[in-house]
Write a structure and sequence with these properties.
Helix content: 25-40%
Strand order of the largest sheet: 4-5-3-6
Order of helices and strands: HEEHEHEEEH
Number of helices: 4
Radius of gyration: 14 Å
Largest sheet: 4 strands, antiparallel
Number of strands: 6
Distance between the termini: 31 Å
Length: about 100
């Protein structure tokens, strides 16, 4: 069954697999549990530090920057909303 929504809480309750499409580009195609395990949110003091850590979709936040990092490299668990926001932000940087 294909379920299209912008309400990520619905996806958290009902989805097994996430296909994230944006402007015709496939940004994610993973089982939900793997997608949630793969990414963490990490804060950085500067954009240069975020780029050096290969943070995905690094963006300015109060007191510094934050970005998605892969694997267990610190930071905190990312929500599905945050994963999608950072993947979208990274897509715009490369477009």
């Amino acid at each position: 069954m294909l379920f299209s929504t912008h309400i990520t809480s619905d996806l958290m309750r009902a989805a097994d697999q996430i296909l994230y499409l944006s402007d015709g580009r496939l940004l994610a195609d993973d089982p939900l549990d793997e997608l949630m395990r793969r990414y963490r949110i990490k804060r950085f003091a500067s954009l240069a530090e975020a780029r050096a850590a290969r943070a995905i979709g690094a963006k300015a936040v109060k007191g510094g920057f934050e970005g998605l990092v892969t694997g267990a490299v610190g930071g905190r668990e990312a929500t599905l909303d945050e994963i999608m926001i950072h993947l979208e932000f990274a897509k715009k940087e490369t477009s």
